[in-house]
Amino acid sequence: MKKHVLVSAVLSVCATLFAQEAPAFSDPKAVVCDISAIPGKAKGDICVINATHETNLAVSVSVYDAKAKQWVEYGTGTLDAIVSTATVSSSLRGKLKNYAYVAAVPATDKEVKVLFSKVNNNLCISVLSLEEPSEYATVMDVFSLNGTFKNTVILDNQTEDAGVGFDIYTQKDNSDTWFKVGTAYTAASKERCTVTVVTPDAPETYRYYAVIAHNGKDYSYEAKKENNALILTAR
After folding, report:
1. Would the pTM of this model clear 0.85, i.e. be above it?
2. Three-class DSSP category at 16
3. Which residues have C-beta within 8 Å of that of residue 18, sequence separation ≥ 6?
4. Which of 31, 110, 188, 233 could bond 114 through an S-S bridge, CB–CB 3.0 to 4.6 Å?
5. In terms of pLDDT, which residue wins out, 4 or 145?
6. d(Cα 101, Cα 62) in Å, to the nearest integer?
7. How far apart are CA 34 and CA 92, in angstroms?
8. How far are the Cα atoms of 135, 191, 192 from residue 157, in angstroms, in the given order?
9. Pick from 104, 11, 12, 111: nearest CA to 53
């Protein structure tokens, strides 16, 4: 394991080459994406995912009607908890194939990034915190570990400290982009917490993981695969 300074950034699934072709949207905070540029299929709902620290986040969603050459309000997803998901209620549900572009406007003054993906035939819009941790972090190469894991990531607080929050970061192999993908809160020491991980791809496809504690302490960290889960332990 080695120490690195983490730079938290988010890489949108939408390729930048579509940016010049996308129709203008009136709100400067809007993030516009070409639906066809997102890998996969989406003919069902639009869901929004809150991967920020905000406990009350609204995301307004619009779609572009190419025939009418205008933006149409799709609906608003309201997320009342950290790392939560909501399906956007709309009279246009199930009609995504009729629209070429989607625009998302998170109602926040904080710096965030918006990520688009297609999951289970739905279009998912993730709002992620864009933060740069100021501390050094232990980077763990989970590809080098024995065993397997699928979807489940657990933070195991083996320190003597209670009431500690931990931010989880991941990085693809041979990439400079770090994703802040989840937060774990442990009310007591010697407590485990399952992390709701928000990534455009399955958590097991990310090679590097890192953890930073909210209290600023420089804990030691280790990773192992156990019972089809990735266990990140703080000591």
Report:
1. no
2. helix
3. 33, 34, 37
4. 31
5. 145
6. 8
7. 18
8. 19, 5, 6
9. 111
* Cβ–Cβ under 8 Å, residues 122 and 45: yes
pLDDT tens sequence across 18-30: 444 678 899 999 9
pLDDT in tens, 195-207: 888 776 788 988 8
Rounded Cα gap, residues 7 and 145, in angstroms: 24
Distance CA 123, CA 146 (A): 34
In angstroms, the Cα distances linking 55 to 63, 66, 225 are 26, 35, 31
The Cβ of residue 38 has, within 10 Å, a number of other Cβ atoms equal to 21
Give dist(CA 135, CA 227) in Å, integer.
31
Question: What's 212's DSSP letter?
Answer: E
Q: Is 37 helix (H, G, I), strand (E, B) or coil?
A: helix
Cβ-proximal residues to 14 (8 Å cutoff; 6+ apart), any chain: 33, 34, 37, 38, 116
The token pair that represents 184 in the structure block: 């774990």
- Paired tokens of 19: 């940016």
Tokens of 139: 């980077």
Amino acid 131: pLDDT: 58
57 phi and psi, to 5 degrees?
Answer: -125, 125
User: What pLDDT score does 115 carry?
Assistant: 84
Question: Both tokens of residue 111?
Answer: 């710096």
Closest CA to 100 of 128, 75, 77, 68: 68
